[in-house]
Amino acid sequence: MVSVQKLSLSAKIFIAMILGAIAGLALNIAGNPEWSQVWLTDGVFKVVGQIFISLLKMLVVPLVFVSLVCGASSLSDPKMLGRVGGKTIVLYLLTTAIAVTMALTAAVIFKPGIGAQPIASVETQISEATPFTQVLINMVPTNPIAAMADGQMLPIIFFAVLLGISITLSKEIGVRVSDWFKDMNAVIMKLVTLVMRFAPYGVFSLIAILAATSSVESFAALGKYVVRVFAVLFIHALLVYPLILSMLGRLSPFKFLAKLRAVALFAFTTASSNATIPVTLETVEKRIGVSNKIASFTVPLGATINMDGTAIMQGIATGFIAQYYGIDLSVNQYLLVVVMVILASIGTAGVPSVGLVVLAGVLGQVGLPAEGIALILGVDRLLDMTRTVVNVSGDSMVTTLVAKSEGELDMDIFNDPDAGLIFDEEEVKVQV
Ligand code: ASP
Predict the structure, then answer these.
(1) CA of 65 to the centre of ligand 1 (A)
(2) What are the tens digits of pLDDT across the range 236-255?
(3) Angle (deg, nearest 10), helices 331-347 and 308-324
(4) I need a labelling partner for 12 at 20 to 30 A (CA). Which of 98, 195, 283, 298 fits?
């Protein structure tokens, strides 16, 4: 039977993910023999996967900078920026507080740490989380170019917003500069489109490596912990977000969630909110209908300061480690964990595994042994991928709410399920 089917880019990426999982599992079952290690998991798959991640990261700084300057310079009213900033930060902190509180409650009620089996001892690499005062100081770059070179998101945001405001204040000269940034923005979006064509190959490779090299035993030993984290992540994304969205924004959560497919796929495969920024921006603007003014500011900010999924892992892990070592935490200590997790999420960039490093700092504050991290290290990658999906969904949800409240959400786009096929999803005809 021959029929013609249209395959969009996100469908191709999804198929690549499934095929990658199948290929990786097949290698895993075969014990990942030496030839496949040399040629595939440490060879072709690794090269293709890493190049894909590098391509995405390559886009982040130019995209965030140019898009944010455009956004800030198109604000006719600088007061709006303060209002948008205030609402965004409050919502980001509030959702993180809900997330970590739910996680701690789940850890206290279901006690995942009692009777847990540690997996083979793993060397922990613990570095200190940055203190909050330093986060504030670091927000103002002494050298914006250096901040860009290091990919530090908060200083880049700070500089871009100030530059955008100055462009508006510079009247006619400003108009010329702003036109240049708008053109540049269009060019960079084209670059994003080009890079995305490579995504199916990158996704295939990354998932294949993960499936080929993960050990089933480590998951079995920490089963209770893994299941608790997954459960709270799902509740947060599929219950808490939809509730907030319909209560505060009077928006249909179903329409919203259906549009997040590409964002979720990229977050899952890259385990990095930062690397997902190009996809998140494109999605909230073209698929959901948020104006560039709002999205260019809230999305990069969210990738840095909003980590609900990470907070959930940290809450459950804290309970897990305390229970494993037989240490009873007081109510005050739990409250301290909540505050620490919220503050820590502000200063850390959305990159893979950063949540574990931050957790070391949180554990130290409440007097738990930071070595406890070794217990959960073995299963963290899959959890990292999943919590990153929640992190970016939270960024998109808050972005949509703030846009709605500012009259910057195009409801025709929001209500149209087919609006804004991502990355000019060219429709490829294939025969099946
Ligand atoms: N990978 C997460 C992110 O980029 C952070 C973490 O939980 O480690 O959002």
Answers:
(1) 21
(2) 999 999 999 999 999 999 99
(3) 140
(4) 298
